[in-house]
Write a structure and sequence with these properties.
The complex is a heterodimer of chains A (112) and B (115). Chain A contains no helices and 11 strands. Chain A has 112 residues and is an all-beta fold. In chain A, a hairpin with a 4-residue loop joins strand 7 and strand 8. With 115 residues, chain B is mainly beta. In chain B, the strands form 2 sheets. In chain B, strands 2, 4, 5, 6, 9, 10 and 11 form a 7-stranded mixed beta sheet that branches. In chain B, strand 7 and strand 8 form a beta hairpin. The chains are: A mainly beta (112), B mainly beta (115). At the A-B interface, strand 5, strand 9 and strand 10 of A face strand 4, strand 5 and strand 10 of B.
Chain lengths: 112, 115
């Protein structure tokens, strides 16, 4: 089966940089995704890494090391609206398409 | 609004009753996924469809759960003889289906409360 570990909570101040780590154990690994979910809202896609290295999308960057089964989400210039839960999800390839298995999420609280 | 829609948004039912949820994916999206999410946890995969074919079911999906996507468009998830442990948010997501790595777009979810 698959297992993912990420910190349950992270707190940071506005304007700071925060890194949310994710380690995983899985077979059939294809890639690592990150999703954001505000309270009461639906998960929204942030980024995806299939290859080792850093992917940058505006204030958010995501990193993957396949050999270490490790990735992280980096949020820069934190804003209050970034307070949300962040989930890493491994994409595994079985049968005809990929299936995503999510971690339990990291609750980010941004303080003024 | 051309996003994924789900109906109803909230459902309260008594234990033992049957419930059915509907998901309308983004138009032209071939893949449709169902997840269940409980408080403090990430979405748990239940099942997914490629067009009208149900390609994979999680072991979480007991015999009381059934999902259909009869014409490859909308999908329904039925839970028979509901139990209190079924209380959760049921999320639907869709993706284009052009490759393994298609982005999944989630709907707002149906929150089920079983009394």
């Amino acid at each position: 089966g698959q297992s993912l570990e990420q910190p349950s909570e992270v707190t940071a101040v506005e304007g700071a940089i925060v890194q949310i780590n994710c380690t995983y154990q899985t077979s059939g690994f294809y890639g690592l995704s990150w999703y954001q979910q505000h309270d009461g809202g639906a998960p929204t896609f942030l980024s995806y890494n299939a290859l080792d290295g850093l992917e940058e999308t505006g204030r958010f960057s995501s990193f993957l090391s396949r050999s270490d089964s490790y990735g992280y989400l980096l949020l820069q210039e934190l804003q209050m609206k970034d307070s949300a839960s962040y989930f890493c999800a491994v994409l595994t390839y079985n049968t005809n398409a990929g299936k995503s298995t999510f971690g339990d999420g990291t609750t980010l609280t941004v303080k003024p | 609004d051309t996003g994924v829609s789900q109906d109803p948004r909230h459902k309260i039912t008594k234990r033992g009753q049957n419930v059915t949820f509907r998901c309308d994916p983004i138009s032209e999206h071939n893949r449709l996924y169902w997840y269940r999410q409980t408080l403090g946890q990430g979405p748990e995969f239940l099942t997914y469809f490629q067009n009208e074919a149900q390609l994979e079911k999680s072991r979480l999906l007991s015999d009381r759960f059934s999902a259909e996507r009869p014409k490859g468009s909308f999908s329904t998830l039925e839970i028979q003889r509901t139990e209190q442990g079924d209380s959760a948010m049921y999320l639907c997501a869709s993706s284009l289906g052009a490759s393994v790595t298609d982005t999944q777009y989630f709907g707002p979810g149906t929150r089920l409360t079983v009394l």
